[in-house]
Design brief:
The chain is an alpha/beta fold. It folds into 2 domains: 49 residues, no CATH class; 192 residues, Rossmann fold (3-Layer(aba) Sandwich). The protein has 9 helices and 6 strands. α9 links the parallel β5 and β6. It is globular, with a radius of gyration of 19 Å.
């Protein structure tokens, strides 16, 4: 890019910001200063505080609330999920919710990878997730991907794979049944909703340590079902990383 082209783009962005100033994704405050900001200073500080760093459930990573340190949470004790370990970058609270909503449903497909990139740049990465061979997304049903226009989990998987220096296997799984949205269902119904919804895809995972990527985990039903199918296809282990974790 030449210097004159860069200056023209700079001027065009400045004019666009003048007529359509960017707003904080969380509180709506008009943003000024550095271009590319997603949140105002107060909401950004809140976002940083929602990052999960304290120890939680050794299996699903849920921050402790109702279990002794080192013991599985109530949900994992009752369900014994098929994934080996799951971790999330943020608690699903504060500014995280509108950012993920925009990423998942409003066409702001750059937001998820950007949130991951910022977390990795700050040194966030659970040691339990570093030793993997491939990254695979929780797949969307083709009908839902057509409705949405993109697959948000596949975007996250690509970013994760690049950060870890391993291949992305987008087609390690296929979603073969169109299901109701998990967020609209009570906890018990979520496990039944995804039972039998996935099959192995054409990308082989036999003998591989797979890291599964998705946007939000609540009960862990979807991740557990995906892990069950991947292990049946020969995966050596299945770990999970999501952008956010909501309480079941």
């Amino acid at each position: 890019m030449t210097g004159s082209t860069a200056r023209m783009l700079e001027a065009a962005h400045a004019a666009l910001d003048w007529f359509y100033p960017p707003h904080c994704y969380n509180c709506g405050l008009v943003l000024t200063g550095t271009r590319g900001r997603l949140l105002c200073s107060a909401c950004h500080n809140w976002l940083v505080q929602t990052r999960i760093i304290e120890p939680g459930c050794p299996i699903c990573g849920l921050p402790y609330e109702d279990a002794e340190p080192g013991a599985p949470c109530v949900n994992c004790h009752a369900r014994d999920p098929d994934f080996d370990v799951a971790r999330a970058v943020f608690s699903y609270a504060g500014p995280v919710a509108p950012l993920i909503k925009a990423f998942k449903f409003e066409g702001e497909y750059f937001l998820g990878p950007l949130l991951l990139k910022d977390a990795f740049a700050s040194g966030w990465m659970p040691v339990e997730l570093k030793d993997v061979d491939v990254v695979a997304p929780v797949p969307l049903h083709p009908r839902r991907e057509r409705e949405r226009g993109y697959d948000q989990a596949a975007l996250l998987a690509g970013s994760l794979a690049r950060a870890l220096g391993v291949p992305a296997r987008r087609r390690a799984l296929r979603r073969v049944r169109y299901t109701d949205q998990q967020a609209l269902l009570p906890s018990q119904a979520r496990w039944e909703n995804v039972r039998g919804a996935f099959e192995p895809g054409p990308h082989a995972v036999e003998g591989l340590k797979v890291l599964l990527a998705d946007d939000v985990m609540t009960t862990g039903a979807t991740a557990s079902e995906c892990a069950r199918v991947l292990k049946k296809a020969g995966a050596a282990s299945v770990s999970v990383l999501t952008l956010a974790r909501a309480r079941p």
